[in-house]
């Protein structure tokens, strides 16, 4: 049985994500932390007749660090959708100024209260917030790269949906058949659709403009939602589904379940800290330290990953997309890292 804490549990993502976690029979304790309305969300979810005991935690003031400590202690998994979402006209990078310090402070609390927990970071810009988390944990001497995950599952979910529409396949049948690697914003997102002969054949039947449109839609799918919500935020429900899909995989692995998908979902991870990650980074990724790759989990942590360049038939076009992605990624990684190393 597993204790899960959601930080940012009362938000647009936090509430539906907490609902999905409450329905998971393997969750024994669900701890809901937010600076507003955590108690209300917890009271509401606690009436659902599933095993998880739900508790809300809301700090009494900005100085109150005890409440988050109590929420986090003994957690096996912490999921973080805390922070501000985009409005039309903004990039995810524009969220850095506010969300960087939110992530820094929450992760510092995790490092003190439950340093062994797996950490799933949803808050944007993911390309920078994950490097921030890594530096904070390094400073505290508790960084386990096998347990730090940037959640990029929504990109895979979108790729399955949009490609399914185009090649007339049920989107769910594409899970484990295609992959999305790189980062989580615009042209740092790289969909790979040539891994299996069956899908590659169908993709080869698309016109160039259909293929280009598919890539663009996956890379900029977030903008579609931001525009449609017209100032009321970004993706929340599809993100709650995607965040849960990844969290469920971590929870399953904590309970001894193993991956049964040919190509597992990707996560944005610190490559030098996982087996063979440094080699992948040096050989194919211009030494980028953070990159999203399909990850295989065991006991709540990364056991190994699928090397896209060995196993996923990366096409020359996809290879060019990786090069573009790496340029953008490096700037975001540097921004995140120096936010912590440059600060006391
Ligand atoms: P929201 O504003 O609806 O909810 C955010 C919640 O975080 C609020 O309830 C707020 O009170 C809480 N919060 C703020 N500061 C906090 C703190 N210090 N401690 C605890 N809680 C705090 O926003 P949302 O739509 O749920 O989006 C949350 C984040 O997720 C945004 O940064 C958004 O860009 C990001 N996001 C990421 C993905 C992804 O694919 N990784 C997808 C969608 C959204
Ligand atoms: C998304 O991909 O939908 C999220 O990262 C939210 C956003 O700002 O687009």
Task: Give structural notes.
It is a single chain. The strands form three sheets. A six-stranded parallel beta sheet has the order 3-2-1-4-5-6, with helices on both faces. A three-stranded antiparallel beta sheet has the order 9-10-11. It is of the alpha/beta class and 344 residues long. The mean pLDDT is 97. The chain has helices spanning 14-23, 38-46, 66-72, 96-113, 126-140, 153-167, 197-204, 208-219, 221-229, 237-254, 277-284, 308-311, 316-341, and strands at 2-7, 27-33, 53-57, 77-80, 118-121, 148-150, 179-182, 189-192, 266-270, 290-298, 301-305. It contains 13 helices and eleven strands. Helix 5 crosses helix 13 (316-341) and helix 6 (153-167) runs antiparallel to helix 8 (208-219). The longest helix is centred in the last third of the chain and has 26 residues, at 316-341. The structure holds nicotinamide-adenine-dinucleotide and (2S)-2-hydroxybutanedioic acid. Nicotinamide-adenine-dinucleotide is lined by residues 7-8, 10-14, 33-36, 81-86, 95, 99, 102, 106, 122-124, 126, 151, 154, 184, 233-236, 239.
């Amino acid at each position: 049985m597993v204790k899960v804490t959601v930080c940012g549990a009362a938000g647009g993502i936090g509430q539906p994500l907490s609902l999905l976690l409450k329905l998971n029979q393997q969750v024994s304790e669900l701890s809901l932390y937010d600076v507003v309305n955590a108690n209300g969300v917890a009271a509401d979810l606690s009436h659902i007749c599933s095993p998880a005991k739900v508790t809300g935690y809301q700090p009494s003031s900005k100085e109150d660090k005890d409440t988050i400590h109590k929420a986090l202690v003994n957690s096996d998994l912490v999921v973080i959708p805390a922070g501000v979402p985009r409005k039309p006209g903004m990039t995810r990078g524009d969220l850095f100024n506010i969300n960087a310090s939110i992530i820094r402070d929450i992760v510092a609390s995790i490092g003190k209260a439950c340093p062994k927990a797996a950490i799933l970071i949803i808050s944007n810009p993911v390309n920078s917030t994950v490097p921030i988390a890594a530096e904070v944990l390094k400073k505290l001497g508790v960084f386990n790269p096998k347990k730090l995950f940037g959640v990029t599952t929504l990109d895979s979910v979108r790729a399955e949906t949009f490609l399914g529409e185009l090649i007339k396949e049920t989107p769910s049948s594409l899970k484990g058949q295609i992959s999305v690697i790189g980062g989580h914003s615009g042209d740092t997102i790289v969909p790979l659709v040539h891994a299996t002969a069956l899908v590659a054949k169908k993709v080869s039947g698309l016109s160039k403009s259909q293929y280009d449109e598919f890539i663009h839609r996956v890379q900029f799918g977030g903008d579609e939602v931001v525009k449609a919500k017209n100032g009321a935020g970004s993706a929340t429900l599809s993100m709650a589904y995607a965040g849960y899909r990844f969290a469920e995989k971590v929870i399953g692995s904590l309970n001894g379940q193993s991956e049964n998908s040919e190509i597992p979902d990707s996560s944005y991870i610190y490559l030098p800290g996982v087996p063979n990650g440094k080699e992948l980074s040096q050989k194919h990724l211009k030494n980028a330290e953070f990159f999203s790759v399909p990850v295989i989990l065991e006991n709540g942590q990364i056991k190994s990953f699928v090397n896209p360049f060995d196993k996923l038939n990366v096409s020359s076009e996809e290879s060019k997309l990786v090069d573009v992605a790496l340029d953008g990624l490096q700037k975001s990684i540097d921004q995140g890292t120096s936010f912590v190393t440059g600060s006391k």
